[in-house]
Specification:
188 residues; 8 helices; single chain; alpha/beta
Length: 188
Amino acid sequence: MKNDFGMRGLGVMGQNGALNLERNGFAVSVYERVPEVTRSYMQGLAAGKRITPTTTVKEFVESLSRPRRIMMLVKAGEPVDSTIQQLLPFLEQGDIIIDGGNSYYRDTERRTKELEGKGFNYIGMGVSGGEEGALLGPSLMPGGSQKAYGELEAILKKVAARAQEDGEPCVTYIGPGGAGHYVKMIHN
């Protein structure tokens, strides 16, 4: 059985994001380049949860159902590009990469064009609410491929914060390219 969602990067945001996904009914695969971080997480916060640790990028990608939905929570800049290059050999057309970090919107524009040209979907998504939001429900600002957003919408609506006034999820499709990261930049 394949998992619903992949979390690449197990800093506090990635750890809490994976717990939020799992609490909302999704089976999650996790990968962190430092194996001790994964071991500690699995023995602590993730113990007994529907969270699957993986030890290689290949194992991580292959543990996911298609289209694969992989969220990267890694440092902005070169680490995002490096992580994408590590994932690409194992992905198939139609798979979705989500950058949930604070990437510069022009980098997101470039990555979107490059990846869509190869048949992959790319979402640059602002995530607001810090570590508590990641765990209990963040405000989400996805931009990029509208088709890919359609594949993610039900998941994102389940894990997002809810507006106090009407209970609506705090997520909407922002627009193409780097729109999500642009809105997050303005928000910051």
